[in-house]
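Hi everyone,

Forwarding the result from last night's run.
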Amino acid sequence: MIIRPLLLLLLTLIQPQSLAEFSAQLDRYTVRDGESVQLSLQVTGQHSGQPDITPLKQNFDILATRSGSQVNIINGAVDARTTWTLTLSPRERGTITIPSLFFNGEQSPPLTLEVTEASTAPTAAGDLLFIESQIDRDTPYLQQMVHYRVSLFYRAQLAEGQLSDPQLDHALIHRLGEDREYQSQRNGVNYQVIERNYALFPQKSGPLTIPAPVLDARIITSTPSRNSRHPFDNFFNNRRASTQAVRVRGEPQTFQVRPRPASHQNGPWLPAESVTLSEQWQGGLESAQVGVPLSRTITLQANAVAGSLLPELTPDPAEGFKLYPEPAQQTSKLEQQTVVGTLQRKIAYIPTQAGSFTLPPLQLRWWNSQTDRAERVTLPARTVNVAPASVDAEMDVDVEPAAPIQTEEATTTAPVDKPYTLWPWIALLFALLWLATLAIWWIKSRSLPPHHADHHTSVSTEQRCRHAKKQFIAACRADDPQLTRSTLLQWAACHWPNTPPTGLEALAKKLNNPAVEELLSQLDQNLYQHDPARWRGEMLLRALDQLPDPAPTMDDGNLLKPLYP
């Protein structure tokens, strides 16, 4: 008697795939713009894998996917089903067709969804949370900072949420400070507000559009009841709060980027709200001597400018001096409402001859974005008196006139004082002191650990490599092929110090990657074209970012590491 029901159960569970029924249904067939809808796909039997949902991505954003299976036995009959539940956000208004989907040879029926305009009624989901965005100027200049603010207003309980960051081609984007939280009113209704600020620096003139910000969130639609008279009601019926997935879009922002003014076409282009230029000397201009280097640190600071956009500031040659400039150090300080860019450059001035010389002034023209006119900052000219190279001062000796020599015997018994007779002894004393100093240095150097002497060198090398990498990234993002080539070779020299590549072709051979080799070849060809503006650096950045990190070699060290650690 027991065997027969067991056989029936097994025969019911083992269903051929051809008998599987694949169905689809929506939880509702009319939604407002910004609301989500749930699509349930169901097939008889228990199955692994999942249907092909690629056709849905043409008209919907898939916010969430979950699957499950259940087996019910009622009066000896077994009903097994596998279900996939997808949360979909329509991308446009109107009538949208959900196409047929396929699974294990079965086809689901097509469905139709109607997406209407978001309602302005007080009960609409748009009143529970919405997004506002704004920019501080509609017609910025090329590379001028645009302050972009996104504010999320909500009075619903958020279980979770993620707000998109702006994605914009031909622009540098910096997020400013931390998110701000405060309360505000709209039409007499109190809202919690989360505000996020960005600084945008357009790198191309013409119209640019910031896509609409998007919030993907889950809001709590019901909470456990605390007013039930029966304690078990809370436990069984309202133990868990239910949530609903929502997607909220703001409005896109479009602005027109103006090119450089016709009167400001030559020289560096620096649109800013304020600019300061300062210098600091080490070594003492008052005591300059031939062969003794003087260190000059020039600091350029600009408000509402990214550090990577600041010009490098190369002083003009100075008569009587040799100049040895170091690479500029560029930084950006991200504050709540703006960006402060700083550039520092050190130059060694070595006097080559004695005399009085004038160092030429250093001037920088910049564009005041607040007054909309050109201005200038200047480091004044400086006169430097250079003394001859230092030598050991001759020692003054008081010598009385020598007595007339009367006889040969007198010359042997009465020696005559001769000038500078002490000089050989003084020279010998200095030579002995110098030898003693060398001996002390040699003894101390042998007592140091082997790596101690190289510590400062390694630190400075690391800083130089880090700076070259930052310069290379900035050059690629600015689509500057000349600067990209030079900074990339500087960065590569840090990783192959013994055999640095002398050109892009040599670098391509070292990297041994066909994709990177092709991009480097395009960069090399672009350098000799008449229209270098067509080159774009983003693909080269991505290609180098995807390079593997191979083991170091004996003579050259590591290959280029990924750009974004």
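The longest helix spans residues 423-447.

Cheers,
N.
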